[in-house]
Amino acid sequence: MDRLNYWQLPGLENIYLEDSYVLGIKTDTSIEFFLEAILTENHSLYTSPLVLKKLKTVIPL
Q1: Average model confidence (pLDDT) for the chain?
Q2: For residues 27 and 19, is the Cβ–Cβ distance under 8 A?
Q3: Are 33 and 15 in contact (CB under 8 A)?
Q4: Distant-in-sequence, close-in-space partners of 31: CB < 8 Å, separation ≥ 6
Q5: CA distances from 12 to 16, 19, 46, 53, 56 (A)
Q6: Is residue 39 pLDDT above 80, yes or no?
Q7: Are 20 and 36 in contact (CB under 8 A)?
Q8: How many angstroms separate the CA atoms of 4 and 1, rounded?
């Protein structure tokens, strides 16, 4: 039997599930998953992560 990886399924090609969260599941005649998903760089909605600059704070004594 051939193995199918999730990123080979239509709609999941540019989603990284390993760091994503399932927020809900709805079942009726089909199954719907509600996700907070990590997008790959190839996804049309991808944006670069924010880079926080380390601030040096001097506290006077």
Answers
A1: 85
A2: no
A3: no
A4: 25
A5: 8, 14, 14, 32, 41
A6: yes
A7: yes
A8: 10
